[in-house]
Design brief:
CATH architecture: 3-Layer(aba) Sandwich
Function: Catalyzes the conversion of uracil and 5-phospho-alpha-D-ribose 1-diphosphate (PRPP) to UMP and diphosphate.
Distance between the termini: 37 Å
Cofactor: Mg(2+)
Strand content: 25-35%
Number of strands: 14
GO molecular function, one term: magnesium ion binding
Bound molecules: uracil
Pfam families: UPRTase
Number of helices: 6
InterPro entries: PRTase-like, PRTase_dom, Upp_B, UPRT, UPRTase/APRTase
Length: 210
């Protein structure tokens, strides 16, 4: 991946996303679709992982077979909606290390404030994939990447379902080295910071809260 944004236009991703956007899609179906899309997006975000070979024996003969090289990658969920993407990706990459970043917005300063932070060791040696379904204003995503870099991460990708042009611009300005993988780039943010047309509040829709 060399582009700053990888917009995944695979027909299955686009079809499933349309179902997720619809307001009458149930919580159970929304969650299942998110799991399925997360695995298709995981395929894209890991497409150029470094490989090496390992000597193995098939029932017929020995061969040098391809295997992933380097340290186990780290998945970092930006709470709480990130957990919806995390589950599916983790199913596909079960040996990944997992971290969590919890941020809330201070209503006076409007700045993200950290309330939880736990990430795997040796982040400098790992590909770090931060996951959050919605790249909206970009404030919390940028803050999460700031924290990951403070912990030593140098190779970070950002995996989301929907991105706004504003969020992409904000991330590009703050962290031009972080590649964004997204299923869609929507029109704009509304005055409440929601992505339009979007899918509403991703956390509420996946957890059935309001
Ligand atoms: N977070 C959401 O869940 N939805 C949006 O549209 C924006 C941020």
């Amino acid at each position: 991946m060399t582009e700053h944004v990888n917009h995944v236009q695979h027909p299955l991703v686009q079809h499933k996303l349309t179902l997720m956007r619809q307001k009458d899609t149930s919580t159970a179906v929304f969650r299942q679709l998110l799991r399925e899309i997360s695995q298709l997006l995981a395929y894209e975000v890991t497409r150029d992982l470094p490989m090496t070979t390992k000597r193995i024996e098939t029932p017929l003969e020995a061969m040098d077979a391809p295997v992933l090289a380097g340290k186990k990658l780290a998945l970092v969920s930006i709470l709480r909606a990130g957990n919806g993407l995390l589950d599916g990706v983790l199913e596909l990459i079960p040996s990944a290390r997992v971290g969590f970043v919890g941020l809330y917005r201070d209503e006076e300063t409007l700045q993200p404030v950290q309330y939880y932070y736990k990430v795997p060791t040796e982040l400098a040696d790992r590909l770090v994939i931060a996951v959050d379904p919605m790249l909206a204003t970009g404030n919390s995503s940028v803050a999460a990447v700031d924290l990951l870099k403070k912990s030593g991460a140098t190779n970070i990708r950002f995996l989301c379902l929907l991105a706004s042009p504003e969020g992409i611009a904000r991330m590009k300005e703050a962290h031009p080295d972080v590649q964004i993988v997204t299923a869609a780039i929507d029109s704009h943010l509304n005055e409440h910071g929601y992505i339009v047309p979007g899918l509403g509040d991703a956390g509420d829709r996946m957890f059935g809260t309001k």
